[in-house]
Amino acid sequence: ASVRGRYFGARGAMMSGAAMITGYGGAWLVDRGRAAGDEASVYAGLLVLAVVSGGLGSVLLSRQPEPAPSKGVRYGWRDLLLLPARHQRFRAWVGAFMVWQIGLGVAAPFFIAYGLTELKLPLQTLALMDTISALTGLVAQPYWGRLADRLGHRRVLLICMALVVPLPWNWLLATPTRIWPLFFNAILSGGLWAGLSMTQTNRLMEQAPAEGRGAYFAAFSVATGLAYTAASLAAGALVSTIGLDPVTFAGMTFHPYQAFFLLSGILRLAALVLGGRAI
């Protein structure tokens, strides 16, 4: 446990490197395919590659050594489902991150769409931003790991969450002729999300009791995943209802997507303020 931060830092750095290469390479191929009038074939090829890679990864993961199961208390399915709900501290932890995931989900579907349609950015430029994020995450991961081992995962998690709160607001500053806020956002995003993801995982391990820990992990994933999905679906349905025409409110005119970027930061802040003690 004393070196867990450094381990996950190194692991995350390697994953960021792989994501950086494949993400930018895929976007480059899509842009080349669009120029040649065969964009659909490139997308199809990338999807096939993703399926094959996922299958290969599953096979390799299945070959990893598995520790012998604990000979402690055995739980039935019903008990495993109810354990997380009965744990007050864990319920508070999950609740805080459900609000956090709602804050992420309300804006997540619109960043790429806004960049392509309103900012008129080519896909390769958006992929370059993802590459920059992956690169900064690659560099930052080991430092976050060492810092977490010194200060504790909770402190580093709260720091990263606080700094991630205003990131979607950088999209409010961008225009077709001023995209530097998005590159600034990409640099910050990569470094901060690297620390946040790593410390969230380790903090989850600290929050979940040893007995029935798998049930706690599953409950956290399901609850936060459903919150994110519901927020994204609701945001998409609302945009479909109100349309994409500019909206004027209080003398200001803005694109509907921008309202969700603003709301995303507000909800992230609410999760941090209201759930900070539970985190």
TrEMBL record:
<dbReference type="InterPro" id="IPR052528">
    <property type="entry name" value="Sugar_transport-like"/>
</dbReference>
<keyword id="KW-0472">Membrane</keyword>
<dbReference type="GO" id="GO:0005886">
    <property type="term" value="C:plasma membrane"/>
</dbReference>
<protein>
    <recommendedName>
        <fullName>Major facilitator superfamily (MFS) profile domain-containing protein</fullName>
    </recommendedName>
</protein>
<feature type="transmembrane region" description="Helical">
    <location>
        <begin position="92"/>
        <end position="114"/>
    </location>
</feature>
<dbReference type="InterPro" id="IPR020846">
    <property type="entry name" value="MFS_dom"/>
</dbReference>
<feature type="transmembrane region" description="Helical">
    <location>
        <begin position="259"/>
        <end position="276"/>
    </location>
</feature>
<feature type="transmembrane region" description="Helical">
    <location>
        <begin position="42"/>
        <end position="61"/>
    </location>
</feature>
<feature type="transmembrane region" description="Helical">
    <location>
        <begin position="216"/>
        <end position="239"/>
    </location>
</feature>
<dbReference type="GO" id="GO:0022857">
    <property type="term" value="F:transmembrane transporter activity"/>
</dbReference>
<feature type="transmembrane region" description="Helical">
    <location>
        <begin position="156"/>
        <end position="173"/>
    </location>
</feature>
<dbReference type="InterPro" id="IPR036259">
    <property type="entry name" value="MFS_trans_sf"/>
</dbReference>
<feature type="transmembrane region" description="Helical">
    <location>
        <begin position="179"/>
        <end position="196"/>
    </location>
</feature>
<feature type="transmembrane region" description="Helical">
    <location>
        <begin position="126"/>
        <end position="144"/>
    </location>
</feature>
<keyword id="KW-1133">Transmembrane helix</keyword>
<feature type="domain" description="Major facilitator superfamily (MFS) profile">
    <location>
        <begin position="81"/>
        <end position="279"/>
    </location>
</feature>
<dbReference type="Pfam" id="PF07690">
    <property type="entry name" value="MFS_1"/>
</dbReference>
<feature type="transmembrane region" description="Helical">
    <location>
        <begin position="12"/>
        <end position="30"/>
    </location>
</feature>
<keyword id="KW-0812">Transmembrane</keyword>
<dbReference type="InterPro" id="IPR011701">
    <property type="entry name" value="MFS"/>
</dbReference>
